[in-house]
From TrEMBL:
This is R13L1/DRL21-like LRR repeat region domain-containing protein. It holds the Pfam family LRR_R13L1-DRL21. Gene3D superfamilies: Ribonuclease Inhibitor. Residues 21-155 form the R13L1/DRL21-like LRR repeat region domain.
């Protein structure tokens, strides 16, 4: 295979790394916290490996399953943080680098070669993934100027509480920005996952950025508001996923989004003005009250096993297809059809499929409905529907005529 396909995996014995390999294209270095000084990194001259396209830099994890420091760690000594920062600062990648992964880094500041004053070494970077940044309280301000960056993914950064304007404008305090061109000019996918204390994202409408962003995922954070600049300038955004975001109450004015997922957002109340939205998935958003301004909606998936009744917002939209996963009690009420209390909430949809689990069997019970031509089918017995209960449910091969 040759040296160009060799993976160099460096653990405790980093000193045994066999010198410069000019033809190396993929490199993984682990156990970097065991290096006693930055001289090892300087000696290996990663920046001189001109064909290097993939670089994986890894320390040993300090984070538990809850996204916080492991229980036996009261904090990482400043001396250790400074040391790992020095080591990473010396690991200058070459201009050829296209993929960079940083994992379990515990310095307070990310490498200086990620800052706006030193972006040249990352001029070819297309993919940047940083996982488990236990001590970093802010993101480097040079990423927005990378001309080729297509994917940015940050996973598990518990110290970040705010993403300020410097994320998009490194010199935002100055009246004359040295920045050339639009921030994140080629970024198409942005994923922030498990920033458990992140509450604020500043991006004003007058700041144009991310002109070709197509997919945005926000997961496990405390973000209170989606920044106005994001909705205003994300004219290419097609896929939006909001998962386990506490305190967020509304999603509005994403005029280009065609697919939206909202999962377990306990405070989300309103989704409005998504004129091109075609598919919407709502899972366990108990405070949701308003769905409006989505004339192109074709499919709505709604899952919540704690719902007592179908939400009234279903009457305000006209999905072609409605998929419901709910409790057996609610499904029994839905299966009453025209004679039940839920009829007016779903009968205007062209097609409805509703399911409930039972006895460990997923979707054991069902109700199938088509508006035109009319069709109504369920395997819940007529007697149980009449009684409004769930005892004695029978699986029927053919639905009773209604």
């Amino acid at each position: 295979m040759g040296f160009q396909h060799i993976w160099m995996v460096i653990g405790v014995a980093l000193k045994n790394w066999p010198g410069p390999l000019s033809q190396l294209t993929r490199l993984r270095i682990s156990g970097l916290e065991n290096v006693s000084s930055s001289s090892f990194a300087t000696k290996e001259r990663i920046g001189e490996k001109v064909r290097l396209s993939y670089l994986f830099l890894e320390c040993t994890s300090r984070i538990g399953h809850d996204g916080q420091l492991v229980k036996d760690e009261e904090g990482i000594p400043e001396e250790q943080q400074r040391q790992i920062e020095e080591i990473f600062n010396e690991l200058h990648p070459p201009s050829s680098l296209e993929n960079l992964v940083i994992r379990w880094y515990f310095g307070q500041r990310l490498p200086s070669w990620m800052m706006s004053t030193a972006i040249v070494p990352l001029g070819s970077l297309r993919v940047l993934m940083m996982d488990d940044l236990v001590s970093c309280s802010e993101l480097p301000n040079g990423l927005c100027q990378l001309p080729c960056l297509e994917l940015l993914q940050i996973v598990c950064a518990p110290a970040i509480k705010r993403i300020g304007p410097e994320f998009l404008q490194p010199n935002h305090h100055s009246h004359h920005h040295s920045q050339v061109g639009v921030p994140f000019p080629r970024l198409s996918k942005l994923k922030f996952n498990d920033l458990v204390d992140w509450e604020e994202w500043e991006w004003e409408e007058q700041v144009k950025a991310m002109p070709i962003l197509e997919e945005l995922i926000l997961k496990k954070c405390k973000l209170r508001h989606v920044p106005p600049g994001l909705a205003f300038h994300s004219t290419a955004l097609k896929i939006l996923g909001i998962y386990d975001v506490k305190h967020l109450r509304s999603l509005e004015n994403f005029t280009s989004v065609v697919h939206l997922d909202v999962f377990r957002n306990t405070d989300l109340e309103r989704i409005s003005n998504l004129p091109k939205l075609q598919k919407l998935i709502i899972i366990e958003c108990p405070k949701m009250k308003v769905l409006e301004g989505m004339p192109a909606l074709h499919k709505l998936d709604l899952e919540d096993y704690d719902m007592q009744t179908l939400p009234r917002y279903l009457q305000d939209i006209k999905p072609g297809h409605l998929l419901l996963d709910c409790s057996l009690w609610l499904l029994t009420s839905i299966a009453a059809g025209k004679h039940g209390p839920e009829w007016d909430k779903f009968s205007h949809a062209q097609q409805v499929k509703a399911y409930a689990d039972d006895e460990g069997i997923p979707r054991k019970w069902y109700m199938l409905y088509t508006r035109d031509p009319f069709r109504f089918k369920t395997n819940i017995s007529r007697s149980d529907i009449t009684q409004g209960g769930t005892r004695g449910l029978l699986t029927l091969k053919h639905a009773p005529r209604r």
